[in-house]
Amino acid sequence: MPMFGLIPKEEKFFEMFKIMTQNIVEGAKLLKEMLNNFPERQAIQQKIKKIEHEGDNQTHEIIKKLNKSFITPFDREDIYALAATLDDILDLIDAASHRIVMYNIDHPTPAAKGLAFIILKACESVDKAVAKLGDKFEHFSEFCVEINSLENEGDRICHESISELFQNEKDPIQLIKWKEIYETLEKVIDKCEDTANILESVVLKNA
Amino acid sequence: MPMFGLIPKEEKFFEMFKIMTQNIVEGAKLLKEMLNNFPERQAIQQKIKKIEHEGDNQTHEIIKKLNKSFITPFDREDIYALAATLDDILDLIDAASHRIVMYNIDHPTPAAKGLAFIILKACESVDKAVAKLGDKFEHFSEFCVEINSLENEGDRICHESISELFQNEKDPIQLIKWKEIYETLEKVIDKCEDTANILESVVLKNA
Amino acid sequence: MPMFGLIPKEEKFFEMFKIMTQNIVEGAKLLKEMLNNFPERQAIQQKIKKIEHEGDNQTHEIIKKLNKSFITPFDREDIYALAATLDDILDLIDAASHRIVMYNIDHPTPAAKGLAFIILKACESVDKAVAKLGDKFEHFSEFCVEINSLENEGDRICHESISELFQNEKDPIQLIKWKEIYETLEKVIDKCEDTANILESVVLKNA
After folding, report:
1. Across the interface, do C162 and A63 touch by the CB < 8 Å criterion?
2. Pseudo-torsion of CA C64, C66, C69, C70, nearest 10°?
3. What CATH number has the domain spanning C9-200?
4. A142 to chain C nearest CA, in Å?
5. In this complex, which chains have at least 3 CB pairs below 8 Å with chain B?
6. What is the pLDDT of residues A67-87, one digit of tens each?
7. What was the ipTM of the complex prediction?
8. A201: which chain B residues are within 8 Å (Cβ-Cβ)?
9. What does pTM read for this prediction?
10. Roughly how many angstroms between the first and final C-alpha of chain C, as a whole number?
């Protein structure tokens, strides 16, 4: 990746992570758009799939660079864990959007839209928190607090929606579909929280 | 945590793990109580939730201490893995009890009670095995053997119960509910076995 | 394990991994046989269970050896990750075959047979790629490319089959059974891909 050639060594990782989190925010925006512009869901799913492939390549580049670097800006296993969890976020955004199309869902629910909104907020906070890694960690912890509070809210919506499904949805096949979609959406936010935990750990070690 | 201030460095981790496993045993006792005192299930679920939050804080304290410690009583990655797997045990106890309430289960099954009994036994063995970490590992392996045999028994009950559900439960929504509750209960015991594997690995390295 | 006594130190790990991957290929062969010789499924499931137990022992031996070795042929954490992911492959082959019996499936589908075929191909590639670890990595990357392409094909079959279930299967309990069997079969191939990723990382570090 020649574009990094002139930047001092340590910053290449920060730059690579920044590209990765910006790609994640793109994916989260598309997921939200999908649920708010439902007739276009198939075309939007294709775009998410493409973004997810780009994410795979970006992860691969970081791992490759990691394996070739003697000196890293923070612990090797934290770089690996961070890259892996960021990759998981996009995989799960893709899995959620793919299920919506694969299960022939005919209209989105308010809860699904609510979760997609929270996912976008959480991904934006991940993007901002990662940006602080190369930047003296200022205001870093407020992004982590924000992600934790978004995760609690996502949990609440997901649990209430599944509870409601079990009370009101009489068609078991519809119940199976929506239960899995809600759970997949919740997992995206859980992964954002895992990312926040890794970042906190990195900051603590380097404080 | 000033209460650890006068204890020699290494033992703080042992003390912190002991507090964590005692908390887990509390959670497992409440899960068993919930299934045997079913009218009180909602109140007991609230108590389990509180114990799970305490577990989160305890895990966080260990990770924080780990990140700040230059010298650790055993390998850094094993301390991390042990804290993470102990945290998972309580998360899964909470997830199981939460599903019982969320899914509006109206009576507990003998299999669920049997699994809760095994979970408590396994958590007590985890507590005893962790206590041996700071104590020359005497009688250590018998706790690991015990956990492995509890895991086999838990597996058997879970598989038989799910097999029976598929044979006799005609209501697919009931089947979905109980299948997931059994699987979540089984995962608690699997996590106890993961913990035993990590402990065995630690003992082997330090023997 | 006295059979390794005369072989130079580093090669013992390679030898142990080779035994492990050959065992995995045996398991994959039995899974394919099960689906093509369905009246014998219970007896074949017993054989798979036995192979899975052997795999557990092999994993345990590698971890034990790892914990006792000061010098290892490649990074300690990669040996651990490789052993764990190989163990997972067999666990999932066992889980898939066990569900086929436990769920009282009365006939195999073409998609299940297709997935079992791909699983065998992927396990054979894992076996060949692992064999290259001790052998200057020649033709190594072609096995990894092969595993990636098998994983894409497995994904496609699995997604199409589940999509079809949601369109045509009117019995929700049948849908639950087959959805989980397809997903478990897909997870086997995903684990083969995880293995390929670990192997690529090892080769990159040691190139």
Report:
1. no
2. -140
3. 1.20.58.220
4. 33
5. A, C
6. 888 788 888 888 999 999 999
7. 0.85
8. 63, 67
9. 0.90
10. 30
